[in-house]
Specification:
Elements lengths: L2 H13 L7 E7 L6 H16 L3 E7 L3 H13 L6 E5 L3 H6 L23 H4 L3 E2 L2 E2 L2 E13 H6 L11 H11 L1 E2 L5 E3 L10 H11 L17 H15 L13 H6 L5 E5 L3 H7 L4 E4 L11 E8 L5 H14 L2 H11 L12 H9 L5 H5 L12 H17 L4 H16 L5
Parallel strand pairs: 1-2, 1-3
Antiparallel strand pairs: 3-11, 4-5, 6-9, 6-10, 6-11, 7-8
Helix pairs in contact: 1-12, 16-17
Keywords: Signal
Organism: Ramlibacter albus
Pfam families: SBP_bac_8
């Protein structure tokens, strides 16, 4: 533990009448109990406790991100919040509005503030508001294009050259789509999931088209902007051209369909990189999202947050744990193990990461895409605003509304929700 934190912990404990400088912190983490990620987190916690015998960390596995924010806010309102949690980066405004979290600026000594600027700026766009740092990036991602090189060869395409832009993506998808003698599709050329996180995948299209879904302060959306509508028309048009499944495409099954050879190209999170690499029986390509007006992807994933009602001693212990978890050598190993992006430039210079890149250069694609990345959709009342957009996307993809009407309706609903935040 850094000397200044140890001194602060000891001072606070003696002031409160404690006789030992031992403290326990509760840590909400958004996965179900068990599984490889839970085992990795448990190993990291055990390693931290060996190095910091005066701090005990109690992980509480809280299910999905949606489950986790609900549980965290319920615990906050009841007066028994976790000391620390990994929650969606886009939940920042929700947590601020609930007065649930404390800015890291209030915990980090002024002489040590450079640490707050050591992360990739693209990740900090969903971590800062009103001049304060509310979240520290941990398991962060972008959207990537994955392709089956064997399918490319079969279709007469260069297996080492992914589509550069929207037009080429349609052309490649047309050549990659396979049908049996009855006309039934046995392999789709392209699959962009539209359940789970449809707004996020859609934001990849919007960004490439030069559009933006919201303003930087989270008080206004732009769902009916012509650039946003045009992006939705393109997405809807993929299925009409017969190169993409019709209707809503499942988030969870898309990687499996790719591994099983039922989709030649997919969009999914860089957080799936390690799993797809392990599971695919074919050579897999990884690329930034195809361009249109420009390139770009929203960032995604989760931040560390420290809760306001946590006692001062626990807050300082939580900060110690956060700083240990995102230290360059550990975020590098976390990236290697999980596929999430190591969150600081220093992590990419570690020997472990340099060795990993030498054997698997595709791991750098998501990092390189950060140059053109934008903040993920995040507003006040974010869950309600996102739901309005997701409903509009589903209506357009299912054909029950035109893209124009779907986005007009979503915008009207979102701005009604955000009306109290207009200044």
């Amino acid at each position: 533990m850094p000397h200044f934190l140890r001194a602060a912990l000891v001072g606070l404990l003696f002031a409160s009448g404690a006789v030992r400088a031992d403290v326990e912190i509760s840590f909400y983490y958004p996965i179900a109990v068990g599984g490889p990620v839970a085992r990795t987190i448990s190993r990291m916690v055990e390693a931290f406790e060996r190095e910091h015998p005066d701090i005990k960390v109690r992980p509480i596995y809280t299910g999905t991100y949606k489950d986790s924010i609900a549980k965290a806010l319920t615990a906050h309102r009841s007066g028994t919040p976790p000391d620390l949690a990994v929650l969606f980066a886009v939940d920042m405004y929700t947590l601020i509005d609930a007065d649930a979290i404390v800015p890291f600026d209030d915990l980090v000594p002024r002489r040590d503030r450079a640490w707050l600027d050591s992360f990739y700026p693209a990740f900090m766009a969903n971590s800062r508001a009103a001049g304060k740092t509310w979240g520290i990036p941990f398991q962060r991602s972008t959207i990537l294009l994955y392709w089956n090189k064997a399918a490319f060869r079969e279709a007469g395409l260069d297996p080492d050259k992914p589509p550069r832009d929207w037009a080429q993506m349609v052309d490649f998808a047309r050549r990659l789509t396979k049908r049996d003698a009855s006309g039934k599709v046995t392999r789709w050329g392209l699959q962009i999931p539209s359940s789970g996180f449809p707004y996020w995948l859609f934001q990849g299209l919007v960004t490439a088209n030069g559009g933006s879904l919201m303003n930087a302060s989270g008080t206004r959306t732009n769902f009916d902007d012509p650039k946003v509508v045009e992006a939705l028309k393109y997405w809807v048009g993929l299925s009409r051209q017969g190169v993409h499944p019709p209707g809503v495409v499942e988030w969870g099954s898309t990687p499996t369909q790719f591994v099983d050879g039922k989709a030649a190209m997919i969009w999914t999170t860089s957080g799936n990189l390690s799993n797809l690499r392990r599971q695919a029986s074919f050579e897999m390509g990884v690329a930034m999202l195809p361009a249109h007006v420009g390139r770009g992807s929203p960032t995604g994933g989760g931040n560390f947050y420290i809760f306001r009602k946590s006692p001062p001693v626990q807050r300082l212990a939580a900060l110690t744990f956060v700083r240990w978890m995102v230290a360059p050598q550990r975020t590098a190993q976390w990236s290697i193990d999980s596929g999430y992006i190591a969150v600081s430039p220093q992590a990419w210079q570690t020997p472990a990461m340099q060795s990993h890149l030498a054997s698997f250069p595709q791991a750098a694609v998501a990092r390189d895409q950060l140059r053109d990345a934008v903040a993920e959709l995040s507003t006040h009342e974010n869950q309600r605003v996102t739901r309005a957009l997701n409903n509009g996307l589903a209506a357009a993809l299912n054909g029950t509304k035109t893209p124009e009407q779907a986005m007009r309706d979503a915008q009207a609903e979102a701005m009604l929700i955000l009306l109290p935040y207009q200044r």
